[in-house]
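assembly run, all chains below
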Amino acid sequence: MSQQILIVEDEADIRELLRFNLEREGFSVLEAADGNEGLKLARQHLPDLMLLDVMLPGLDGFEVCRRLGAQSETSHIPVLMLTAKGEEMDRVVGLSLGADDYVVKPFSVRELMLRIRAVLRRGVRSSESPVLERHGIRLRPEAHTVEAQGEELLLTATEFRLLEDLLRHAGSVRTREQLLNKVWGYSFEGYARTVDTHVRRLRAKLGDAASMLETVRGVGYRIKE
Amino acid sequence: MSQQILIVEDEADIRELLRFNLEREGFSVLEAADGNEGLKLARQHLPDLMLLDVMLPGLDGFEVCRRLGAQSETSHIPVLMLTAKGEEMDRVVGLSLGADDYVVKPFSVRELMLRIRAVLRRGVRSSESPVLERHGIRLRPEAHTVEAQGEELLLTATEFRLLEDLLRHAGSVRTREQLLNKVWGYSFEGYARTVDTHVRRLRAKLGDAASMLETVRGVGYRIKE
DNA sequence: AGCCGGCGTCACGTAATTGTAACAAATCCA
DNA sequence: TGGATTTGTTACAATTACGTGACGCCGGCT
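ok done. output:
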């Protein structure tokens, strides 16, 4: 379930720093200390993303990148290059060209994580369903709009996320716990009945379409198949 | 028959790496290390597109661009300018001289390839520049100008990029984080409410057209579909 | 130097949103 | 049927989000 990231970096302390932060963000991590090993692991595990240092003993980052691209199984693996500091902007640009993005050392962890997420997001873009539609309700996640029988509904952010989650699981029951975790986030420490209140508010705005949002007594809520 | 791209760039590293990526994408590549040679090759081979660095020894990118435009055989060749970050002002000049698009360094490979394909798809130079138009607002990325109801608006660089990003995603909500990453860059470590301030300034300049830039409470901002 | 435009931050006011409590209604089970 | 449990409904206070104006910094220009 968790996404896998391959670190190819010769300096052990940087590897460790990266591993620590990536795992804290929920990624699983592979490590390689040189280009050859990185290439081998990439082919074996087909990670979701590679962090690739440019300056490596033996095969350098650019060469690894080139060889990855030459193989069809590995050519789709997004690569984020780590480039040494102090280089000319032009040079950095050049070095980044075999990759999807690059970060200049020393980098801030925050920035690196942002870039990793950005690169990963590009991959899943296509799989995201653009429109959720059921029983005359049309929800556009991208636009953050909802229509019921052609009328646009003005939902609050929470209501919207709630409806989105229910729609994504249309046909199956969602428990209050599941909804709290997904809509409110794991750090929410409130009462489960908060869900009830928001379901009520949502129903009020749904009008006639509210009948599709049913209560499953003792379990949770569900949108009809 | 693969399309031919001419790279005019003085740094050998960058040339090589551009060549590598372009050939990987199926283009055939010509190289020139300075403006004069670039001009010569352009006249000889009439490539499908030119990647033209601004900073060149001898004849600079603008001059190359201008001389190309003066000849009927070469005037149709699409030009994609490579500009360094500090060359914002020059950009306007270059584009007015006939470049079809520009890419500001540093850029990611992905972005460069997308732009190359966009320019090639557009076909004949200047025949159909990408103009972002919505609700009486017309933004010309290449010319770096914005009009609202026929009146030209004088936007700052940040305001322009902000509006450009919002327009490119018209109909979709953009979160503050997305806007910060895109408009301010990943290395920006400031406060998300900075976005609000710039939205406000943008709205002030948009005048009546400001109503198309709506706030999506709890999420971000969106330009109406 | 002095000025100025652009930018990021801050403080404040207002309005929308949200979580909770309290009570009513519905449903279940013995 | 009656008590227990679960859910619906309403009201409300606290919080949050956003718009707005102002301020200070910085870099470029005169």
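The radius of gyration of chain A is 23 Å.

Chain A has a mean pLDDT of 85.

not gonna interpret more than that til we talk
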